[in-house]
Amino acid sequence: MIVLAGALGGCASDQPRVPTGDPLSVVKAAPEQTTSAGPVTVVVSAPDEDLEGRVDLATGEGPLEVRRHADIALERVGRAAKAVPYGGQQVRGASTMRYEVTTAEGSRIDVWIDVEGRVRRVELPDAPADAPPEASPPTQPNGLPALVTVDFVFPAADPAESPRPGP
Hints:
This protein is an alpha+beta fold. It has helices at residues 2-12, 23-35, 64-78, and strands spanning 40-46, 49-55, 80-91, 94-103, 108-114, 119-125, 147-153. It has a 7-stranded antiparallel β-sheet with strand order 2-1-7-6-5-4-3.
């Protein structure tokens, strides 16, 4: 019985595995947290291309097209005007909170942020790199917006992905 109580007590004191705080503040701070976290693997899934590459967001080192997608995604997240938590979800093995975000220009994007405050995934309408944020995105044959998913995959040794210690 004592062992069970100790195990339950240990669970109650665990830190949250998703970000906490004002949703808009969490979202607006996430691009800087992501950029300052060091090199990251960026995986892009777009209607016309799939890309992957190791990028240092602080220095700009890495494959040009991968960096371009990462920069656009983080820039749009940074222009958040409204953020509504949508629920927790795993992204490539990391616990995250999903936010429905409306940018200052009225664009809608979805953003997944981990407990460290780093962006793990951004889903945004596909648009040419030189298109203004308020431009209408291309659509799929079914009429829904064509989307680009940009994943930020941090090294497995980081604290957000390490297993929880036992009691």
